[in-house]
Structures are given as C-alpha cells and as structure tokens.
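Mods, move this if it's the wrong board.
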Amino acid sequence: MSGLPPKPPLTTIHPSKSRRGGIKRSKRQDSDAKPPLAPAPSSKRPRLESDFDLVLSDDDDISGGNIDSPRTSMFDVEELCTQFQGVLADDAVVRDLADIFGDDAYEEEYTIDDSKRMPKQRAYSEKDLKTSFERDIACMVKEANENKGVSQGFKFGLAIKPKGVHLATRRAPPEVTIWDDDTARCLFSEDGIPLVYHLPRFLRETSNTILTSHLVQYGKRAPLAVGTGADKDGRNSASAYVFRDGEVSGCSVLARLWHGVGRTDIEPTISTTFLHTGTQFNNATALVHHLYYLSIRVNKLLECIDSKQFAALQELVKRAEAAHPHTKALGTIDPLLMEGRAIQFNRTTPNHADTFDPPKGWAVIVVLGRVRSGTLFFPRLNLRVRYCSGVGVALRGRLLKHEVEVWEGEQRISIAHFTHAGLWNFYKVECP
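Not the wrong board. Structure tokens:
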C-alpha cells in the first residue's frame, strides 16, 4: 500500500477467511487490549481561509495543488481523478456506494498496530467518477420532473416566433412562486414545453469548495473585464459589481469558438481571453481542466432535459472540430459541449434576456462561492428561485428575461454556459 509506513512486527493474530477467500486479520483477543480505534475517515473537507486558498499540502488527494505547480500543467484526467478521490465518498451520487462499486467498495485492510489502524480504499477511475456524477444529475432531473409546475398563460410555440415573446404571456401570474428549499423542480409552459429546471444540490459542499478555490486563484491572475466590452452599459457595467476587500470582482469569458459581437459573417475564433498573454493561456487552460467534471455534469443535465438539443450540440461540436483543430485539442481537457462559459465574480445582473442565444436554446448557470442566500427572478413567470452556492439552473435564456438580485454572504461566482445562435447558423445545424 503506497504511502504507508513499514508494517511493525506482527503480534498474535487469528487468521480467518475473508469475503475474497484470503486470510483476513482479526481483532486482538487480549483482555487488556484497548478497543480498536475507528478507521480514519476516507477524506477530509478542505478548510478555506478568507481568500479561499486551500490550506492543504501538495500531497493531499483533494487539493489538486496550486495552479502554477508542475503537476497541474500535465493535462491528464488521471490528475483530476486523484483530486476527486475524497469527493466521491462525500459527494456521492447514490446514498450507498455499493450500488455502483459493489459490496467490496469499502472493504478495509489494516496493518497490525496497537495505536493506529489505517484503512486501505480502492482508487476510483475516471469512468467511476464520470458514472457517479452523471447518475447524480439523472436522479436530480428525475426528482425535478416529479415536482413539475405549469406556467398558465405562457405559450412556448408563440414565444419562439419573431417578436412573439412579448405576446407569449400578456400578463404575469398574479402571485409570485418561490422555490427556496432543497427540492429539485421544473416549470413547463402551458403547451407542455420545459422552460426552467432548478437543481439546488447540483454541486455538493466539497465540490463547491474545491472549484471555488481554483476559480478565485484564476480570478486573481486573469485580466477580468469590468465596465468594458459590448455590454459595458448593461450587464457588465461597473455598477453591476460588488467590490470588497479580499474578494474578486469582474468577468472572464472562456469560449473555445465564438463570433465577436456583430461579426457572424466571418469564421468564429477562440475568445481573446485565452490568448491575452502566454501566462494567461496557461492559467485559462489550467482552469478549464479543473472544471472537467463540472462540464460532465452540465452535459448530462442537458442530455436529461433535452436529448434532441444534446444530440444537435454533439453534431455542432463534430463540425467545429473538423474545421478548427484547436477546438478538438481543447476538448481533450474540457468535454463541455456548449460553446463557452462566462465566469462572473461578484456581479448582480439587471433584468435581461440572452439575445445572442437561439430561441429554443438552453443556458446552464452554476453558482459557487460562499453565498448564504440569494435569488434569481423571472418576471414573466413571476418565479423566484434560490440562487446560492451549489445551485444549478437550466433556462431558456432567450425567451425568459431574468435578473440576479443582491445576495448575502461573501465571494459569489456564477458560471453561465451557452451556445450562441451565430455558431449554430455558421455550421448549418438547427437548434431543436
């Protein structure tokens, strides 16, 4: 067992048959012996300082090290599997790991020592982790479908027509609907089309802690946009951000392939945020690598709620990779099917629609950080949902105006995953 001290001389033991047919050491039978200590827990949740840096050594399984370390410069999935060894037990898909790994998933083998008994756990492969996270999302979507609501008066078929969104619902429901607990829910239109999925447990605490640390480290080094760009007078205005000591504020868009605003007539390119400097390229690619398993969750969510759009995105990615090889290269460290992600640090967002998305397109927003409470509001649906750390929301961003209100807590990070209409049109793939 690698990493363990040499075994001490064996004391008297009583061999017996184990479940695997071998010899299993039994407890000492001495009457004066102290009761055996409980096995050490499989993983420890990392503790965060105020600046969100993980206070763990480079040898800790779940820390993943510093972004600048040589270890994280090797973009292989094995490194992420190591990082998430402790997460799986705490962030498990199902309540009993035996459902995935069998009855022997946690069988323990001990060194014979009067003071310590050290458990040996199996290592989880990339396939194990991927299966675990995907099954978790599938269970949440199933729960949401069992708690389905209907927005009377909102007609999807009318909303997707040119300028039809204003006629889709002439009047919002008179009473506000509030989703403020841990129950997964969804809302359908009057004509039976899903509009919103709200998953309060999209990320569990350990995953949120790890990813928040990587994101904050990236935010401290990256050239974040505040009050600049095409949206400088709207969502990205300087007044939309909350500035506090020790926290990061600003926006960073990481898109493998997209069009500049108003330039859908030319070939799409990688977002300039990747290419600002050589150091920024290293930081950006390291970050998307750390978001590997978050991308798997987002992909699975889309597959579960809209299999047709999921399949169309796969075709879109296939055509993009054939035309632009760099997207295939980045896809080896980031499996996200959507075009890109906008990472927003400490931003409140005024009421708006995602006008660059196709009418039927989904956007997926994930909230991280240390947010105790907050809400996302849909005025046309008169729907207010919980919007704090660990929450995931899938919405039809082009059809549904939405706004992010002031939150309680410390650092807040939201990641919006999207695919713009320009990319669908460029590769001649219909967004179903």
